[in-house]
Design a protein that fits this description.
With about 375 residues, the chain is an all-alpha fold. The protein has a single domain (about 10-375), classed as Up-down Bundle (Growth Hormone, Chain: A), CATH 1.20.1250. Helices cover about 70% and strands about 0% of the residues. The protein has 16 helices and 2 strands. It has helices spanning about 20-30, 35-55, 60-90, 90-110, 115-140, 150-175, 190-195, 200-210, 215-220, 225-235, 240-250, 270-285, 290, 300-305, 310-340, 345-365; strands at about 185, 190. Helix 4 runs antiparallel to helix 8, helix 10 (about 225-235) crosses helix 11 (about 240-250) and helix 12 packs parallel to helix 15 (about 310-340). The longest helix has 30 residues, at about 150-175. The chain is globular. About 50% of the residues are buried.
Amino acid sequence: MNIPSSTTSDPLLQSACKINYRHLLPIVMIAVIGGLLFGFDSGVVNGALGGLQKTFQMSEALSGFSIASTLLGCALGALVSGHWSDKKGRKPVMFWTALLFLFSSIWSGVSYGSIDFIISRILAGVAIGGASVIIPTYISEISPPSIRGRLGSLQQLAIVVGLLGAFLSNYGIIQLAGSSSAILAFGEEGWRWMFMVGAFPAFIFAVGVFFIPESPRYLVSIGKEREAIGFLEKISSADAPQCVGEIQESLKLKPTHSWRDLLDPLTGKLQPLVVVGVLLAIFQQLTGINIVFYYGPVLWVLLGEMFENKNRGSAMALSATALWITNFAVTLLFPICLKEFGAGMIYAGFAGVNFIAFLFVSRCLKETNNQKLEEAGQS
């Protein structure tokens, strides 16, 4: 099915266009449960650490690695999920991410050794890394350009709510048990229940994914234009066939779902836009934001919008992988550098990186507000 594109302005941006929020928002709210789990699994270990160390008699080094190991899983999850979502679709990746959240939450809670626990946290990291790629990608692809930024920010809100939920849940368990190492119920320590609480939203997420549609841009990429039109007609009064025609135009160079798609065919090097995305992710971590506060929310919105349709998943995956590897390095090296150089020198270094990042963003990053995804990557 080939739908001709039009040279008129984007139908989703026309003033007469009405957005069906009653249909769109429930879909987005199910998707951002992945963001809530992202935040919860990132923050839950803070309250459990004391009990974990006592139960497994962990050294400082081993307990530190048990936390940092999650970030290695994040890098792996980010690397795999984007490429897989380009080949198999956004929904299957979200479903498997939900199952990983569910399985790793239970495994972390019932683990009976430090190695056992570390493996469970690596799996949790794979889920977090997958969510960091697939959720903003999915939201950006189902959202009209005029509200894409606002809907994308719900993912960031969900991450913060997840972090808050982890802290409140941990606090409640400590109040009931007396400490994270004390027995709470069924002969199990409080710290174990801190992790297993995450299984409940993970189950809801896994079930909810069955009731949301596939991304219309992915549907067009596999030749299911009629399904894509049906979804677009439900969320907006815009000309859905025209929208699909524009998506087809952006996909006229059919993606091969290979990492080679990210290379410039003339130079054989990474495409400039992909380099910008990777450096943006690295700078976001080197600014020291994870030492002060856990995430910079604008980053995921930008990464979800700035790449072309034909390789968005893979480009997002590479950028997110760079972010998680840098996050791992910063997390691992910060205590060592703090002892060696002191806080003043470290934060002076962060300030220098912030200045370089400011110059980089102001010169290399294009504005994406109100831009069609089909225009991404165009000069």
